[in-house]
């Protein structure tokens, strides 16, 4: 009996020793509240990412359109943050800013539900203590289609990673919907960015698309959901007021028409401040006086974009009533060529247009005639 007791005791001690030596089992996610800072530690036995790095999970509940800031800091390893949630929320961050190893995420929740945070390390098998903080983010103003709002940038405005001030706005959009976003200011050089709420990647940005120092974005939404606009500035010292307008569809803008004569070759440039048709294509306009029977040759050449040529009467009743148009002079190229006999003595208009929305660059336009 004594031998059996000793054997059983030895087995129990051996089992306890094995348990003590075994890594801790990965635990379920911890709740974290708004305004709360929690401390944790990455250690062997924690859950692992696909790259073998350890992480701890945290969760909290959100309402759609609410903004948050999550910060992860450690003196013992290089941190990495990963956030996922409802409505397609998926964003991550390595360094809060250049030259540091702490991580920081600012995002707007696209939908209500549970958000999951992964407090992670940048590389596999890193361990150590850390702290994680959840704070309310920048208040986002809602803007509706057809609405124009006023705002301002000040020294107290939230800052982008480049330290430029901004004000945030959110709106609801539908897949395939086209929108025009205008930001105007007499006080500073405007800058606009658009992203899906909950994403850290910009879908589109613009500096001077509205002409002068005003910004303008033309964009077709890739999915239904919440979108975030940042009314921003080029300069870190920008201060003053601005207006932001959100319009469904694409707003056309007529450019000034330049004169061109027979035998002339002109150099031009399509850019965001150029004219824009109702589909969002940039264009420049030229005019010349022609005579019935003139055999006109028009050419447009560009190495920056695919140019399209349109020729019509300047006094035509409908904008789309062209005498002729051409995309590609030959199937293997992108240059355009029109050869046509003019029907009347009148003023004619030429449009040099980009083939795709947003295309821009330099071009050469030639106008020749034979009689």
Describe the structure.
With 371 residues, the chain is mainly beta. The protein folds into 3 domains: 30-136, Jelly Rolls (Sandwich), CATH 2.60.120.380; 141-248, Jelly Rolls (Sandwich); 257-370, Sandwich (Jelly Rolls). Helices cover 5% and strands 49% of the residues. It has one helix at 2-21; strands at residues 30-31, 36-42, 47-48, 54-62, 67-73, 79-85, 89-93, 103-108, 113-121, 128-136, 141-142, 148-153, 166-173, 178-184, 190-196, 204-206, 215-220, 225-233, 240-248, 257-259, 264-270, 275-276, 282-290, 295-301, 307-313, 324-326, 336-341, 346-354, 361-370. The termini are far apart.
Key features?
single chain, disordered N terminus, Jelly Rolls, 371 residues, 6-stranded mixed beta sheet, 3 domains
Going by helix content, strand content and strand pairing, the class is: mainly beta
Supply the CATH architecture of the largest domain: Sandwich
Order of helices and strands: HEEEEEEEEEEEEEEEEEEEEEEEEEEEEE
- Report low-confidence residues grouped into runs of 5 or more: 1-24
Terminus-to-terminus distance: 125 Å
- The proportion of residues in beta strands is over 45%
CATH topology of the largest domain: Jelly Rolls
Tally of discrete structural domains: 3
